[in-house]
């Protein structure tokens, strides 16, 4: 699964109607609502949207015929394997009716165009842990952890060494534990957070 690096926009004109999509990363339902409120255009004929966070999702056709706007936008999100993303597509009516199929293609296509152009980042499950080690092992352990893309997010010192707060990919936990054990000759203690 992926999410978006930052807010992205795209626009297209279809039979004189202008469709503008705005997509962005969101953390939770409250952030989704705030994103939609911030980017909705009150002067547009329709502000249709969809968002997905894990198994949760919502969508709105905002006055368009049922199923012709929100569902195609959600399908564009799901089609690109995105999560924690909200997409808003505004429409300025150009005077030509598009029909149900045309609306579905227009809303879904504009959302897909926007999402396709967006820079994506992989969503990875992370594990937080504390690592207690002696001063003699500290520099080497920190250097090797950074080489393995393990983030050191906190550091406190004791009389004999340091306690590091580290964050790593969940699928790398066993590898990191083995590395720390080897580097410290079994003296460092790693405690995984729940």
UniProtKB/TrEMBL annotation:
Residues 131-187 form the UPF0029 domain. InterPro entries: EFG_III/V, Impact, Impact_N, Impact_N_sf, Ribosomal_Su5_D2-typ_SF, UPF0029_Impact_C. Pfam families: DUF1949, Impact_N. Residues 15-114 form the Impact N-terminal domain. Belongs to the IMPACT family. PANTHER family: IMPACT FAMILY MEMBER YIGZ, IMPACT-RELATED. This is YigZ family protein. It comes from Sinorhizobium kostiense.
């Amino acid at each position: 699964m992926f999410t978006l690096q930052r807010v992205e926009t795209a626009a297209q004109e279809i039979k004189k109607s202008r469709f503008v999509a705005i997509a962005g990363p969101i953390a939770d339902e409250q952030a989704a609502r705030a994103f939609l409120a911030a980017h909705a255009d009150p002067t547009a004929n329709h502000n249709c949207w969809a968002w997905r966070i894990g198994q949760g999702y919502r969508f709105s056709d905002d006055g368009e015929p049922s199923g012709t706007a929100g569902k195609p936008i959600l399908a564009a999100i799901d089609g690109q394997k995105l999560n924690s993303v909200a997409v808003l597509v505004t429409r300025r009516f150009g005077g030509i009716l598009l029909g149900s199929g045309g609306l579905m293609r227009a809303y879904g296509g504009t959302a897909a165009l926007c999402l396709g152009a967006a820079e994506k980042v992989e969503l990875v499950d992370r594990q937080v842990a504390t690592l207690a080690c002696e001063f003699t092992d500290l520099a080497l352990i920190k250097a090797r952890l950074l080489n393995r893309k393990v983030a050191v997010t906190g550091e406190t010192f004791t009389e004999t060494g340091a306690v590091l707060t580290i964050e790593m990919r969940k699928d790398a936990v066993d590898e990191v534990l083995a590395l720390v054990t080897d580097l410290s000759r079994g003296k460092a203690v790693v405690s995984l957070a729940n």
